[in-house]
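If you are new to this repository, start here. Below is one unmodified record pulled from the training split, so you can see the exact layout before writing a loader.
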Amino acid sequence: MKTKKEILIKEISGDLVNYLKLGYLSINSFLDKINLEIENIEDLLKIHFLLLEDVRNYILALPNLLRRLRVSTNLEEEITNEKLNGSINWQNTLKERLKRNYKDKTLFSQTKRNRYYNTKENIVLKKFIEVLYEIIVNLKTERFVKYDWFKNGSAINNIIRHIYEKNVYMTRINLDYARISDRMIEDVARNRNVLYRNAAKFLREYYKIINLNADYDEIKKFFENTFIEIADEDTLFELYWIVKILKSNAKNYKMYLVDGKNNKIASFEDEKDTYSIYHNSTGSSDLTFKVEKEEIEDLIGKNEYITRLVDISKDFSVIFEGLFNRQSFDLNLIWSGRPDFLIEVRDKETKILKRIILGEVKYTIDYNYMLEGLRQLLEYMYFMKYKNKEYIYKNQNLEIKGMLFVDNVPLEHSGSEIKSVRVFNIKCNELKI
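And here is the target side for that same chain:
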């Protein structure tokens, strides 16, 4: 039986939180594979916030809670010859007529009651609703309503949009020049009115979550609940092994902030070398994983296997174009690949590449599917080249290793090296590279 997603994320969530908060690990490439158009962890954190049960319940109750909205009123005396829209102050009216023109029967002094909406409570409330509105608009959350994890999604989207765009009271609260301080939020969080108190509390919590400054347990809950809900199993399994590799190899080493380039998701160093881990990537600009037609041109028509390989590429392109009415891949490309992860080991001083570790991950308990992953891994090892098109494995003085990761596939010697390849099942804890 395959290991459940809940078990995978619970096992690594503690280390995952630490790596993320310290800037040692980027999960953007994993988010890309989820295929929900979530660009970065900040977007995922916003979804997490919107899925919090207390936040959802507050949003669903907002139409009724807004009846508790309060405004400040003040009395203002006004002298007018125009239409009255307040109560007449006869004493002041007589005084003003005597001072100006006692015969003017159209002159009145009126007391007007003005309503003031920009109280600190209303400012915090509108800011919170604005935050919610920006989440659903910028992340286009209407596309999530078909998923079970976005409970009451349609209702939540409609309520937020209607209140922000059409509610007459919200339109009268102006945030253009409002400065919302932490002190203001804290003051409103102590308000007796649940409309304001919860808006302030949730706004405070939102800022903490989005900056990864929330409590450790809250961020763990983020991964153990939200991430597991939206991540597909294969992507989560890849993240699981990356964290396990970091835990086994970088525990006592200094790690560096990931720069976000080339899907480099983590890096660390020891006394001699630096280690760069790339996910769903061909690594740095030094490497390529392609076999092009020009390399086998002389064998076409002479070697039956090569000739049929080229014909397969041609037929694939024609069928693809017929199905989708657009061109497929480069016809000159016979083979291309991209490992699930790649680790480059370089000398700290010279920056020279010393070792490459290629990783393939298969979330499977099926023996045959594992062997398919093994074959793919060997292809990456054998077909990997420098940018100058020189093959590396067995041709160059550079150490190449392969690592295959599977779930509960029974192995006689998990982690043992055979022909430069090691295979690990989920029961293996030591992943020294």
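Two things worth knowing about this chain: The chain has 14 helices and 14 strands. The longest strand covers residues 353-362.
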